[in-house]
Amino acid sequence: MTRHIALLRAVNVGGTGKLPMEELRAICAEIGFEDVKTYIASGNVVFSSPLDQEAVKHKLEARLTAYAGKPQAVLVRSGAEMAQVLADNPFPEAAPNRVVAIFLDGPPPVDTIEAATHRKDEEIALGKREIYVHYGEGMGQSKLKIPAAGKGTARNINTIAKLVEMARL
Question: What is the rounded CA–CA span in Å between residue 109 and residue 131?
Fold first, then answer.
């Protein structure tokens, strides 16, 4: 059994993309995932499954699409991979709530940094299947656009650390 962490794209507390975490836990249990736990109402779920990452992704996306009536994107990492994302943070001295990892299904394009627009004081670094961004003045002030991030989903370092901790249990 592998501990997996699934990150749902475009899940909000209210409005478009609303998915109560109780429903997400029930959906995961219904499709055979075990020891299911969610973290904050933004589509973070930790569970165990004998399935590989790709099978987990497809199974969860299919069930969420049926639930929502429209395609739902999910990015999946093992607990060990998420721990490595945390360890690889290229901005360890920055406030963890001002650093995000944008999770992607594959490696970021080599021109990701050069293609970014409206950059002010933000710092960008590439990971294996992530784009790290340090928002110096905070995300709320930023106008940064990263085209490669369009199909990804971001989590700040505090959230990543909590998910790593949950995956160890």
Answer: 10
Q: Stretch 71-90: mean pLDDT, rounded?
A: 96
Q: What residues have CB less than 8 Å from 97, skipping those under 6 apart?
A: 156, 157, 158
- Which amino acid would we find at residue 155? R
pLDDT at residue 111 is higher than 70: yes
Q: Mean per-residue pLDDT for 5-18? A: 71
Q: If you search the block for the tokens 């999910």, which residue do you land on?
A: 74
Strand residues in 26-156 grouped as ranges (E)? 34-39, 44-49, 74-78, 99-103, 123-126, 130-134, 153-156
Which residue type sits at 130?
Answer: E
- Topology of domain 2-80, CATH: Alpha-Beta Plaits (3.30.70)
Which ranges constitute the DSSP H helices of 19-156?
21-30, 53-68, 79-87, 112-115
Q: Span 83-168: which CATH code? A: 3.30.70.1260
The end-to-end CA distance of the chain, in Å, is: 13
